[in-house]
């Protein structure tokens, strides 16, 4: 397109394209049922609180994904009342179940489909491989995604500049093409900070209208997918 601004799109996965929260609840219900834990809102909220805290530690570089997945159900059982359940088995089932429940956010498929004639689209994620690959492979956006870059496989996490250097090298980027690349994500501390570290433009996907109090400033901010599309194709 004549005014197109970006040719390469690096999408975050969870809460940007995929409805992670819906997948998470489905996976938890299955795990709780298998292991004899009541699937009450209280139990759901307890796990989510522990998991979110651990992911916050991961985002700050304090723990690895291996440590996170090893301890989250153990910590959950300690608070919920351990009755002999196996936290490692719970985590394995959770990841497999998460990978089998693939839900897109409303409008994500249309966005990828509409960008496909004009842009190369990739996913860059800190998520766990078995869950991310499973959901992508059963998703209607699979034909539009050229490749998925997973931090656990790369040995370095978003927002480190080295994560994006691997992407840059793998895609055979040039400085000129990098200027026409944009990261689209909901995470200020991972996606948008990653863009700043890697000297690449960013679109902060912010449908909830959250206030940015971090000092991490995106190139663009979008409240919905039509706005993302317009930014990428140079219609604004």
Silhouette: elongated
**Number of separate strands:** 6
Cα radius of gyration in angstroms: 18 Å
CATH superfamily of the largest domain: HAD superfamily/HAD-like
How many structurally independent domains? 2
Q: Kindly name the structural category.
A: alpha/beta
Query: What is the H/E string?
Result: EHHHHHEHEHHHEHEEH
Number of helices: 11
CATH fold call of the largest domain:
Rossmann fold
- Record the strand order, biggest sheet: 3-2-1-4-5-6
Q: Give the mean pLDDT.
A: 96
CATH class of the largest domain: Alpha Beta
* Low-confidence residue ranges: none
Q: Could you tell me the strand content as a percent range?
A: 5-15%
Largest sheet report: 6 strands, parallel
State the share of residues found in helices, binned by percent.
40-55%
CATH architecture of the largest domain: 3-Layer(aba) Sandwich
Report on this model:
This protein has helices spanning 20-34, 41-59, 65-80, 87-100, 108-115, 129-137, 151-154, 161-170, 175-178, 188-198, 225-232, and strands at residues 8-11, 120-125, 145-150, 181-185, 201-205, 220-222. It is built from eleven helices and six strands. Strands 3-2-1-4-5-6 form a six-stranded parallel β-sheet, with helices on both faces. The two termini are 13 Å apart. The longest helix is centred in the first third of the chain and has 19 residues, at 41-59.
């Amino acid at each position: 397109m004549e005014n197109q601004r970006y040719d390469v799109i690096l999408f975050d996965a969870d809460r940007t394209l995929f409805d992670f929260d819906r997948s998470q609840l489905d996976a938890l219900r299955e795990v709780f049922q298998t292991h004899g834990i009541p699937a009450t809102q209280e139990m759901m909220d307890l796990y989510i609180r522990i998991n979110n805290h651990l992911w916050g530690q991961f985002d700050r570089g304090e723990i690895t994904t291996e440590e996170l997945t090893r301890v989250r159900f153990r910590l959950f059982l300690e608070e919920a009342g351990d009755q002999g359940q196996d936290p490692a088995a719970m985590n394995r089932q959770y990841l497999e179940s998460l990978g089998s429940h693939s839900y897109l956010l409303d409008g994500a498929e249309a966005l990828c489909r509409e960008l496909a004639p004009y842009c190369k689209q990739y996913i860059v994620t800190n998520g766990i491989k078995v869950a991310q690959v499973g959901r992508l492979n059963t998703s209607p956006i699979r034909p539009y995604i050229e490749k998925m870059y997973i931090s656990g496989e790369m040995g370095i996490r978003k927002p480190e500049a080295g994560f994006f250097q691997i992407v840059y090298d793998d895609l055979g980027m040039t400085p000129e093409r990098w200027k026409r690349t944009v990261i689209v994500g909901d995470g200020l501390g991972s996606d948008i900070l990653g863009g700043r570290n890697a000297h690449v433009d960013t679109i902060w996907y912010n449908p909830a209208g959250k206030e940015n109090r971090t000092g991490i400033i995106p190139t663009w901010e979008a409240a919905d997918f039509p706005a993302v599309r317009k930014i990428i194709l140079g219609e604004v």
